[in-house]
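Good morning,

Attaching, inline, the backbone tokens for the sequence recovery test we're adding to the shared suite. The designed sequence is right after.
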């Protein structure tokens, strides 16, 4: 089952993910925090599939409260520890599923997710859930790696990603990512594609499949099909190999008319005040 793959992968990855330079870089972290124009000191935001809460911790000074939700307990434990270490008092971390957010309709001011949709078999459902729990007028931010539209090029990319991390499901094209927000009834405020690079060795060895699949991944990367726009390796003499990708960053607004999720809102559950206030079991 895919949830088992997620738990296995991200329990193992948690510590390395938390310190991965690519996850903390200005391109991938600060760009997202800076694209939250409406976030204010009085707002409560949700970070969906928060991992160790890098976005939550970066956003915390700008909002009244930020709640991170994730399936992987090791990630949540790390997020709590790191928030405590940084004396961040307004960040909470709860265990839960991005496809069934434990919040009432419109309970939150905003929601953000980064680099999660490519792990989720039904990414549109995640975006619809984010749209559901945000109040009318509230913002939804979605950021994820992009795939190239060309079929064989996209397949080549996914194969490499899955060899290195078996919990990878599929990167979408910008058009397919945009369609998830449109289907959720959200209005697009802005979108952009942001190039970023990551240390190939760090990326490869962080994934559970990477060390074992290194030779095959190296060979596949060298056989890059024509037309690949994102996901290119550069090896310069005397420098660490770098993998270059692009991610799509979008800002959406929930209109007064609401959303198109077919899931009834989670009843009787609004916003927890304490770290321990959320649902635990799964
Ligand atoms: C690549 S990490 C990204 C972490 C964080 N969003 C960031 O960018 O720093 C993907 C995270 O998604 C979580 N995840 C995957 N599927 C999920 C789901 N259905 N519900 C909640 N979390 C999920 C994993 O546990 C993992 O922590």
């Amino acid at each position: 089952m895919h949830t088992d793959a997620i738990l296995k992968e991200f329990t193992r990855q948690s510590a390395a993910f938390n310190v991965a330079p690519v996850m903390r870089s200005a391109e991938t972290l600060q760009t997202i925090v800076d694209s939250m124009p409406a976030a204010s000191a009085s707002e409560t935001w949700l970070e969906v599939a928060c991992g160790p809460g890098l976005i939550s911790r970066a956003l915390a000074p700008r909002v009244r409260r930020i709640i991170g939700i994730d399936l992987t307990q090791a990630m949540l434990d790390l997020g709590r520890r790191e928030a405590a270490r940084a004396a961040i008092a307004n960040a909470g971390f709860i265990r839960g599923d991005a496809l069934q957010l434990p919040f009432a309709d419109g309970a939150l001011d905003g929601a953000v997710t980064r680099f999660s949709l490519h792990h989720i078999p039904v990414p549109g459902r995640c975006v619809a859930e984010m749209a559901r729990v945000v109040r009318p007028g509230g913002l939804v931010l979605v950021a994820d790696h992009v795939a190239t539209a060309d079929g064989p090029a996209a397949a080549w990319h996914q194969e490499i990603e899955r060899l290195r991390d078996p919990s990878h499901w599929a990167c979408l094209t910008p058009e397919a990512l945009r369609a998830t927000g449109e289907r959720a009834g959200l209005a697009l405020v802005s979108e952009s594609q942001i190039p970023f690079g990551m240390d190939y060795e760090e990326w490869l060895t962080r994934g559970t499949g990477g060390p074992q699949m290194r030779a095959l991944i190296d060979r596949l990367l060298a056989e890059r099909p024509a037309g690949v726009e994102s996901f290119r390796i550069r090896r310069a003499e005397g420098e660490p190999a770098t993998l270059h990708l692009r991610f799509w960053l979008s800002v959406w607004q929930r209109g007064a008319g609401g959303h198109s999720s077919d899931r009834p809102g989670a009843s009787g559950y609004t916003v927890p005040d304490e770290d321990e206030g959320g649902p635990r079991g799964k």
